[in-house]
Amino acid sequence: MIIIAITPASFFEAEAASITAILSQGKADIVHIRKPASSEEELERLLRAIPSDLLERVTLHDHFTLSERFSVGGLHTNSRNSTVPSGFKGRVSTSCHSIEEAAAKKRQHNYVFLSPVFDSISKKGYHATFTQEEILKAAKDGIIDKSTIALGGVTFENLPVVERLGFGGGAMSGEFWPDPAQIVTIAGSDSSAGAGIQADIKTAASLKGYAASVITSITAQNTTGVDSILPIPPEIVSAQIKSVLNDLDISAIKIGMVHNSGIVNAIVDTLAGYPLLPIVCDPVMISTSGSRLIEEDTAEIIKRRLFPISTLITPNLHEAEYLYGRSITDEEQIREAARTMGRLYGTSVLIKGGHLSDNENYDTLYILPKDTIVTFHGEKIASKNLHGTGCSLSSAIATNIAKGYSLEDAVRLSKEYITRSILRSAHWKLGKGSGPLSHF
User: What DSSP element (H or E) covers 19?
Assistant: First the structure.
């Protein structure tokens, strides 16, 4: 069977590398490059980045004149591009939406797509046009054969059905370029957009993920501090979680500011009704300057109920000292604190030790399942724009976990991302206090 990969309509980062891998690793026989809104220059840049020896297995849906400069193996006619350049010697294909149309167009094309054969997996309400009995009859009549490619709802799982129905192959898009990793951030809203929900969404987007949001509180704040906080009623927090988890394919959860015990209980009780997902909890208890942010009873509920269901907690140094119950003044103590807290609360722990040294960061990760310690050393960056650093780090970790990285790799990649974000914004003058990061 021929397997054809169809690209997304828009360009994406490292697309040429993805196409190269798909073809060189034999995941697909042909890649159809379909970019209906592209310019010729954009498409040319993509083609130049694909190894020339693989271009014979590439089919263009747009800008057919590029076939004269690149040795692409195929052209796919459509309403935008209906005329193949004279002298083109490669494959010519087109799309059909009825069995009668396929019968007519097969004579002028090397192969035709027939769609939709199955209910679409990417377009809601886009259902199969044909019954399997109709397809089998068309195969018996010689209309559907090796030169007919099934399109619409085709997956690797149903390829055996495609072959049984008489098609020569299947064309797919979502199987090769899956949807972005989806997370949900459960946190407070920052009116200055440097921290909280706003920072989480920007972080996930910059890492090519998608973040849904559950707002636990509304804050009036800016770069100089927090002026006012309005907690969201626990039942509304619970309703937001249910709405998101009942619909989206969430792969990780980030939990940030939870202002009172009622909200903590609502989060834990609601999540208990869903399959266990990785949870990255940023315990927003004490600011980096040492100011207390939540009441004692809320902190106790967080320790007792929220930490044990978390995959990772990410306290700053002041929060780590509070949770550990003693001061932390050197690298050995930070490792012991991480190990003790992890075993006590039943979770992995990342202590952000940025205030331990004037020149170097000592971020320490205790991985509970392995009972191991990993220390991440890094040089401090001189910048006053650090608002939302903790929120952004924890949401980056959640996004990277959702993308399939191990905990250690997710932390390492997220720290590298935060370092780049701090460097990019070090010269910014946004606000009168501690300014935000450059997330993009």
Answer: helix 15-24
